[in-house]
Design brief:
mainly alpha, MetI-like fold, 10 helices
Length: 254
């Protein structure tokens, strides 16, 4: 209860700061008040089009995140075992980390259909974070546990339950926290630049072009809420795996 109250007060503080800034500026066309934005968001949410647009954009980004998460995790496991592959793929990981998102978007726009680009861009944002965290997690495994597993001749599943899942869990949760929000922002940025037919980015771009800044802020708030909920969903899923793993872990784990 105290935690809920704490976060509620924090949210109200920032809304109050926004309201004060809007009142000081005094130009709703430039900086609309939170009341106007929330009213507009409420009106938008009453239309089927709003939910259709949010759903389609969400699915694009979500598919990109999940596929990238799985692919990066699998590649990291292989690279941990084969150092040559690690050395081969690290330059590509570094390029993905350092290349501006806009460059990826424009290159992808030349090569593929615009509806596929937001998911690809979201995947590119997630991949290096998950890959790096998985490698670090594998390297942090306690040597004595690995030696014990070898001595007892534990199978692959038992090793995963007793060693690898508990070891990698905090790294995977950290990766989710660091990459999900970034992937959503990058995916929406891709939509704004390439304007797929049905997308949040297209409506943000149109609102900016038509100087409908209340609507622009409303779409932005909707994205923030969606990003927060998706981030919570990923973390809850990983914590559920944590609880399930603890129940199924054999007694000889310790």
């Amino acid at each position: 209860m105290k935690r809920i109250l704490k976060y509620t007060l924090i949210v109200l503080f920032w809304i109050g700061l926004w309201w004060a800034a809007s009142a000081i500026v005094g130009l709703p066309l430039i900086l609309p008040s939170p009341v106007d934005v929330l009213i507009k968001l409420g009106q938008m949410s009453m239309t089927p089009l709003f939910w259709r647009v949010m759903l389609i954009s969400s699915v694009r980004v979500f598919i990109g995140i999940v596929l990238s998460y799985v692919a990066a995790f699998a590649l990291a496991l292989v690279c941990h075992r084969v150092k040559l592959l690690h050395d081969i793929f690290m330059p590509a990981i570094s390029v993905i980390k350092t290349t501006p998102v806009t460059s990826f978007i424009l290159i992808a726009f030349v090569l593929m259909h615009r509806d596929l680009i937001p998911g690809l861009i979201a995947a590119l944002m997630v991949f290096p974070v998950v890959f790096t965290n998985t490698i670090e997690g594998m390297r942090s495994a306690r040597p004595e546990l690995l030696e014990t597993a070898f001595a007892y001749r534990l199978g692959f599943l038992d090793r995963a339950k007793c060693i690898w899942i508990p070891t990698l869990r905090p790294f995977m949760i950290s990766a989710a926290g660091a990459s999900v929000g970034l992937a959503i922002k990058a995916g929406v940025a891709a939509e704004v630049l390439i304007c797929p037919e049905v997308s949040v980015g297209k409506y943000i771009f149109n609102a900016k072009q038509n100087m409908e800044y209340v609507e622009l802020f409303a779409w932005t708030v909707a994205i923030v809420i969606f990003s927060y909920l998706l981030d919570i969903a990923f973390k809850l899923a990983l914590k559920r795996v944590k609880r399930k793993t603890r129940k199924e872990t054999p007694a000889y784990e310790n």
